[in-house]
């Protein structure tokens, strides 16, 4: 049998010959190469090179570069999935070589022409990183050879991983991911243990104090532990997990509820103790995450439950914050940085007013947009958000709300005669409020009005034929979403003790929307995961903030392709987006 | 007195005169069918009765009470239930939740549970799949769900829009059997259909719609034997 190679399609194949879809392979390899070139010329590789993942061996810059090549090689291997294993591995290797060859062209070109006037990031130090510290131009040939060998190794690794048995693949992948994650957050973990007795005993994993990332031994240990655990859990975990599930399902409903409640209580108590471990900086990050969780829960009602796309959600956050500020600020008078008038209330007196104002604003925005859907609704709400922001900036309202300078001296939260100003103290308030709001959101979801919202999201006409009042249901969604956000705004104002209008930009609205999409539309645990992924992570990796939006965008695109239902979706949504296997869903 | 009394209604989509004076009656316990070609105004008539579209002229009365002042969602409380065209199930909600939505206008949980049992008895397939999202059901199952959802409201009058649309012939027969059974159990039905043959075989009376006007009305049997109906809608030469 001979193999016919048809260009443009998957070539036909036989077991004896190696067959490739050369055109597809070339394309994937080049895309991988272009990705590697892109992360290099925008400066990612060089900037990230300063950050060790595994001390002295692997830096984050190399990880990004290798990641680009690895991904393209894996895709190349999967494209050859109908072929023999050997051709899958070869496909991955070829793709890896192609990707590094593209990178090699960039290096070679940079020696011929000075590219820096156009791409300012193609610096000699970047080239040194890419050529493994060889001296150019003298050692150009060995450097390029080394680069190709690098591509070969990564391609080979990707190919071997692809053809490896599933269990092994999962074990190795999760091992690598954990090493990367712990390496990335190594510095952070170190701040948690500095000065504590435990520091000495784990220093062999995390390395010395001034090292970033994990040590080589640490990486090896983490990798083996995770890989072993993954293998074990794949062998026994599934059965154990389903046994636990079955045991739990066999309990009476009341006992199940009790179990869940106890579990939640334990989690709550653990969270309650966290500030002691966290210290001030991390507690402050946690508080910010908490505020985003509050807003996420609110927007989740509007967008996730009721399906009303609101892009001006930050407006309610701003209204809550400004109401709190105007109601409690003590910087009153005529002059710079002062406002003419303040109610002079305490935090607790002002809180219901702030929530009420936001709620009212929700209804006021809701009334004119009742008949609107989808894109039109999005544009109107976007405009509403901008109106509020511009009003906050305006000279017209400056005597009352401070204009661009904002409002200072906002009252702190007072509990039992004590002002809670430190982030570690504030954390408890944020935690309690998050717990209460999450409980409300959860009860709303399964309530009569929650079902009405979902029905409206699906089909307004049919919903009203079922007896659902569209007007009150929609207004209720807007109002409760706005109230949650106003709540968050009020705490935000008191947390910073001063506010400026710049904090209430469009990006906040988009961030909240993105976090509920990433977490899983309509899902409550999803809000938590989304807030951790989109608020906590960028906050902790602040040194790379210039690439934040790029990574953000790439992650969102990837999510929409591979996991459109979000990280922790609602069960039904997951089922709908991933058609179940026939028979899988039979009771 | 007729249960549903539609008198000379005119509706418009923008400037397009969709219904040009439709009058029809449905008596308690009947199956009445509205047949006609695409665009004749069948669905528009149903939308007008269910309050989703307000007629500019004419009146719609349910048991003598004018419905003009009621919103669509209030009519559910008056005992009108709708099985929408193209099935119109809430695809992201589970079968159970869809049925619960059908009972939205009620709060007698004992009666709701009884009706749920009844729906599951009529459509055992729905019971098998009660946790599944409605969007993953087959076309026939979705039609069953839409019908079951309407039954959950325990309606006096059920409006059905093209229950046979897009279903395999064998499923169509099953659905019509069930419509007949629902009617026997005491629900009055106004049935809009393109499949005139099937509709006339189970209905008591029928109306023929053409470009927004009623051109014929008679008992189902007479209509089925009418030469014009046979030629235009039953495909008999």
Summarize the structure.
The complex is a heterodimer of chains A (587) and B (237). Chain A contains 23 helices and 4 strands.
Task: Name a few traits of the molecule.
heterodimer; A: 587 residues; mainly alpha; 3 domains; two-stranded antiparallel sheet; 23 helices; 4 strands; 70% helix; globular; disordered N terminus; disordered C terminus; B: 237 residues; alpha/beta; Rossmann fold; 2 domains; six-stranded mixed beta sheet; four-stranded antiparallel beta sheet; 10 strands
- The CATH class of the largest domain in chain B is identified as Alpha Beta
Strand percentage of chain A lies at: under 5%
SSE string of chain B, helices as H and strands as E: EEEHEEHEHHHHEHEHEEHH
Total helices of chain B: the number is: 10
CATH topology heading of the largest domain in chain B: Rossmann fold
Helical percent range of chain A?
Answer: 55-70%
Total discrete domains of chain A: 3
CATH superfamily grouping of the largest domain in chain B: P-loop containing nucleotide triphosphate hydrolases
Strand order of the largest sheet of chain B: 6-7-8-3-9-10
Radius of gyration of chain B: 17 Å
Main sheet record of chain A = 2 strands, antiparallel
Structure in words:
- The complex is a heterodimer of chains A (587) and B (237).
- Chain A has helices at residues 22-41, 44-49, 60-79, 85-112, 124-130, 140-163, 166-184, 186-193, 198-206, 216-250, 253-305, 314-328, 347-366, 374-393, 398-401, 423-445, 448-458, 460-465, 470-496, 506-519, 524-540, 548-562, 571-577; strands spanning 52-54, 58-59, 413-415, 418-420.
- With 587 residues, chain A is mainly alpha-helical.
- Chain A folds into three domains: 1-163, no CATH class; 168-250, no CATH class; 262-505, no CATH class.
- In chain A, the strands form two sheets. In chain A, strands 1-2 form a two-stranded antiparallel ribbon. A two-stranded antiparallel sheet of chain A has the order 3-4.
- In chain A, β1 (52-54) and β2 form a beta hairpin.
- In chain A, α12 packs antiparallel against α13 (347-366).
- Chain A is globular.
- Chain A starts with 21 loop residues before the first helix and ends in a 10-residue tail after the last helix.
- With 237 residues, chain B is an alpha/beta fold.
- Chain B contains ten helices and ten strands.
- In chain B, β1 (4-13) and β2 (16-26) form a beta hairpin.
- The model of chain B has no long low-confidence stretch (mean pLDDT 89).
- Chain A binds chain B through residues 448, 451-452, 454-455, 457-459, 461-470, 572-573, 575-576, 579-580, 585-587, and chain B through 50-52, 71-77, 81-82, 84, 88, 90-94, 97, 100-102, 104-105, 128-133, 135-136, 149, 153.
